[in-house]
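Lecture notes, structural biology module. Today: joint structure prediction for complexes of two components.
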Amino acid sequence: MLFPTIEFGIFFLIVFAVSWAVRWTPGVRKLVLLAASYFFYGWWDWRFLGLLFLSTLINHIAGLALVRTEHAALRKLIVGLAVTAGLCILGFFKYYDFFLTSFAVVLETAGLERDLPFMQVILPVGISFFTFQGISYVVDVYRGHVKAEQSLVNVMLYISFFPQLVAGPIVRAADFLPQLHRPVGLTRAHVGVGVVLILSGLAKKMVVANYLATELVDPVFFDPSAVGALDLLVGVYGYAIQIYCDFSGYSDIAIGVAALLGYRFLENFDQPYRASSLQDFWRRWHISLSTWLRDYLYVPLGGNRHGDGKTYRNLFLTMFLGGIWHGAAWTFVVWGAFHGGMLALERFARKKLDEYAPAHPGHYGLLTAIGNGAQHFVGIVWTFHLVCFAWIFFRADSLSTAGSYLAGLFRWSDANQYVTPFAVGLILLAMFFQFTPRHLGRWLARGIQWLPSPLLGLLLGGGIWLIWAVAPEGVAPFIYFQF
Amino acid sequence: MLDLLREIERELEDGWEAASRAELQQAEETRRSVARVARTFLIVVLILLVFSSDRLMNWVNGFEVGPLQNGVVALAGTWSEQMSKNGFNEPAGQVRDGMTELRGTGWPEVRSRFDNERARTREGAKLLRGMLSDQPG
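The predicted structure, tokenised, for the full assembly:
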């Protein structure tokens, strides 16, 4: 059930009506939301409902076991077992065939061909997201950031809550579980935020992402050797915008839907293409994943506490594993390694720059302001192009396609076929919104939260009608569903 | 209305002290907001049923064959036909035509539009300059 479909619209209307009708009995409301979430997940493939439940049960039992023991070594063992179990489930479904295929290639190269037990494992939708949420719960209980939940229903709802179940944002136990213990409420602010985010998310996904995918990105990436350099260059800019609008559109709708049910999720994107460094980019892109990787991988690896060399290693490893999290393919490995390597290099360069030319606080003048502005501008352009370079590997179906794409960027003699004013206009429009005031959405939400229901209905209904009329026919799946 | 009754019942059961003023205010705001969103959704559904009935038709055409589904398809078909007959699908059609034209626009057309705009601006500037120079003193 995709968000921008009539099926989801009907489903949400029913869930909204029933969940608010039973709000006086929180236990029943949670059961309603839980049943709705399992129904939502079962709509994709009911066979994986058991897997979702098993994953939740492991984490719930681990949480309860952590409460019942004070022994440090035993607590470590419990959290280790729960995390390993989660990662084993994820690893089997996501990486089994990838590792076996890679192993077969290695054996073939060494002249030792064998029949290997390939299984054509189907990837359950959202498995990476709910596994990470489960790990977040157990580790937060272990660290004492959140109390272990006595109620299985609460843990089940936290892990399976339908707005974030299949493609995030990755909600933290410490953020969500306390909300289940408070009386639920719907304020004007919830309504304003919900309406603005649902409309902006639909527009991003259905109009910008879908048009760019069908008219520019898909044809260009299908066979990069058949198109010219300009097509390829604008094609990768188009993909940068497509993946942003696709994923942030999904996150917007998820956060908006949760807001209308009375729950608050944290922001997942913050105008990432205005970042002036890669570190800044990762503070703005898929924030829930980057903070998850920071807190549950980078920090346990040692973070920046054990000298420069280990800090660079930890940065690299975190991004490398983040790349593998995205999918079982060498292209994601290269993408993650590139980001990890560049982040380490950037940190090293900044450190050296600070040593040789330290900043002088309090020394402000016109020339300093112009210099800082120019540096910031160059930083934005440089970061955007680094990110675009990495997107080539992320989008390409194989390393050879990525290689062909990169080679084609030097073929300027060929005429362009796909760089139309429409595609360029969409890219420029989306880029414009990267540089609008940061709180534009909040201002809009504040503005509309006081609208009477007929005007709000006209705004939401008219907005959805316009998006439907403008958008291409059909709904393409969200890119992040495959992760 | 029933919500309000439920609130009163709860207060009587638990005693007035049990429900703090803040909680009551939150419950009241929630009740108002839920009613407001419900009315909003009703308007949204009506707008989409009237002005996007062709989308509804496309959707029900994807249903499997069966007695209930056939009835729904027939009903949606009649509805969509009536909406089209009364011209309610025209605005969406016009927007779609506009989008098709926009997507089909090539670089030469964009350039000629820019040239036309520039020529018009130049003409306007000339006219303005002429008007200013005609003024005495």
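Point to remember: The interface with chain B takes residues 6, 13, 16-17, 20, 23-24, 183-188, 190-191, 195, 211, 215, 260, 262, 420-422, 452-454, 456-458, 460-462, 464-466, 468-470, 473 of chain A (CB under 8 Å).
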